[in-house]
Amino acid sequence: xxxxxxxxxxQKGTLPRTIRVALVGNPNTGKTTLFNAxxxxxxxxxxxxxxxxERKSGIFSFEGLQIEVIDLPGAYSLRxxxxxxxxxxxxxxxxxxxxxxxxxxVVCLDAGNLERNLYFATQVLDLGLPxxxxxxxxxxxxxxxxxxxxxxxxxxxxxxxxxxxAPTYKGITELKKVILQAVGREGEDLPWSIGEKVLHAIExxxxxxxxxxxxxxxxxxxxxxxLLLDRRGTNRMIDLPGIRExxxxxxxxxxxxGVKWVESESIGRYAWIKSVIETTRVRSEEKxxxxxxxxxDRVLTHPVFGLAIFLVVMAVVFQSxxxxxxxxxxxxxxxxxxxxxxxxxxxxxxxxxxxxxDGIISGVGAVLIFLxxxxxxxxxxxxxxxxxxxxxxxxxxxxxxxxxxxxxxxFIPMLSGFACAIPAIMSTRNISDxxxxxxxxxxxxxxxxxxxxxxxxxxxxALIPATPLxxxxxxxxxxxxxxxxxxxxxxxxxxxxxxxxxxKGRQQPFIIELPPYRVPSWKTVLNSVWERGRxxxxxxxxxxxAINIILWFIAYFPHDNSLQAKYDSQRGAAxxxxxxxxxxxxxxxxDSLQSGEMLRGSIAGKLGQVIEPVIEPLGFDWKxxxxxxxxxxxxxxxxxxxxxVYNVGEAxxxxxxxxxxxxxxxxxxxQRVYSPLVALNIIIFFILACQCMGTVAVVKRETNSxxxxxxxxxxxxxxxxxxxxxxYQLGIRFFPGLA
Amino acid sequence: MRLDxxxxxxxxxxxxxxxxxxxxxxxxxxxxxxxxxxxxxxELGVLEGVDLKVIKSSNPMLLHVNESRIALDxxxxxxxxxxxxxxxxxxxxx
Lengths: 739, 94
Description:
The structure holds two protein chains of two kinds.
Chain A: H1 9-14, E1 18-25, H2 31-39, E2 43-47, E3 54-62, E4 65-71, H3 83-92, E5 104-110, H4 114-125, E6 131-136, H5 138-143, H6 150-157, E7 161-164, H7 172-182, H8 196-212, H9 217-229, H10 243-256, H11 261-280, H12 292-300, H13 305-324, H14 326-346, H15 351-368, H16 371-387, H17 389-402, H18 411-416, H19 421-426, H20 434-443, H21 453-463, E8 468-470, E9 473-474, H22 475-500, E10 511-513, H23 522-541, H24 543-556, H25 561-577, H26 580-601, H27 603-615, H28 622-630, H29 637-647, H30 658-664, H31 676-688, H32 693-703, H33 707-734
Parallel strand pairs in A: 1-4, 1-5, 5-6, 6-7
Antiparallel strand pairs in A: 2-3, 3-4, 8-9
Chain B: E1 15-16, E2 25-31, H1 38-43, E3 51-56, E4 61-65, E5 68-72, H2 74-77, E6 80-86
């Protein structure tokens, strides 16, 4: 076994304390699995400053040295077409200010798709950084009858090639060893040719750029290749003095000489790759032999069956979120109640105890209770993503998305929007056309994110009866599915409205890879679900907790002690004259009367009453108004607000649960506040209204202006109000049974 | 690969990829580089001299290129000129 002592002397002297390794590769090459195998659980997820692309890094130690691995976003080319690929290019080219240069690049190469993977690999190796190649999925390639010979590949590439099977840790130690050995060893130039005239132009351009910005020779050359040949123009070096003019002049000269310069890089690289493949990989006899994935795809990408299966999958997902989460939710509910009563019995009564039990414990508990459902939703989305099904869904949905002025790419952010709009808006970076991207950003907040789920669950659980419909579906599951379908329709129509008006323009072409189906690695899946679940809990613990405390204050103060005395004396009277069930009922009634009167006198109550005339035509009373005001910053706060609204001054074990409180809530005239119609209207309001500060912030960041976030808040608020108004007014006229 | 070696393919029955049927195996002869999206296709391995199989001629089309399955708009496929190698009906033309 090699240790750091075995390294050549000149290399040992130059070894930095922490070795920085960048892990790169095409999407779907097993890169994340390899990253997990290298770093184990010592991972860190952050954002690149100023942008919202995730920066995933992890540390492992080997032979007494610390090695930091940065998992760069998957890319097909170093000439980016979207913001995610741009991050990969910027880090590798040393153009990302916040990121130190890397010591070693590990290129992940999928043996089952060697041609296309080698394209990006040769671009990366051309940068001259010390490079190592990790050959993944060679077992799969062998089973397809075309294994890759790593030894021959190593000779061609001039860099060490290590075969890895990440889930079984085969080759991982070897890879770590090779990474250490590679430090400080620049690779040789690959012998592919771009053509003499183009090369000449590149050298000319590189010399010119080098005058303004000194860079390593080979990086300079790659920058020049990009500036000269890529007309998509995403590199800001073009703005260096005189460079834009020089690029134009060189292109014109090449054009004049009849050189196909646009094509030169792809033709040159692929010609060389073809010669490499011939000696490196056994060719299976039958070309274009349908794989197992192709057979599955005959059904799953079918315009009719594929769509039908997709809808069934979604229906099952949403029903199981509702049923499977149940036991876990009961558990969290029990824990919350137990800790609240433990605090209540161990502290003297007073505002501080009320704050702890009513404000903090029940508030956070009311949010955490939905963690099981959110985890399940994330689990399903990650499973679809990692199995390869998500891109089939995008393929099937493309023609339908087209009708709304979007592409199949926009479907993935829309689907992610069902988990959370914030990462969904970030994932619009995969859409290269700016208008399509903006329209998607405007529409995504309408997709039904997980923060709305608590509101649906509360309203459906409290007010929609669980009447069985068919095959295990109940009216409750049906309403939940309906909410999701309504939200996706709203999102698509809004996208279309934007594409037909302010964001009019030609459609960009749709290109997507359908990766082979794979059984997702449980480790990777659980890791992603854990990461996202952690984000939700952190949020519940910070923003939501802060809002809860503020809410508790405005719902508690001014605290009228004479009210407490008044109701205590009535309780005393009741205890003297009544007994048994009658007494219980009377006491509950008094509790609820007291909470109501106290809330009405509080700051929150006053605010709710101020907006009551505005929301009354929607069927909402002032208490719901408090919930709406509170949830402007974050929707999930609604549930905990309602818990506070209906439980003020009340937190012992006899307190009625939130759902019962909602069912029993009455207007002054004795009419029920909540009817199924009001429940549906609250659901509709929560689908359409923009009640998420995080979304506003991310839209501001992604569009780099205040215009679009303001447009978004404006149109969503108007849409929510008008739709709910029409729905409720029509509802009470035509379906009085529901009202 | 030199570009002039490609020209001999462009002799007979030049057709657009968008006109192909499911099951056709074709050789790419020319790509109109002025159409946006073609550079990304090149990077994915869809370029002159490469043969591919049309898995689905629906819109979007689904192609089998090297080991990749790549879906693209029919509109974009119209920028790609091809020659038949094997047509879906089975008769070899090359």
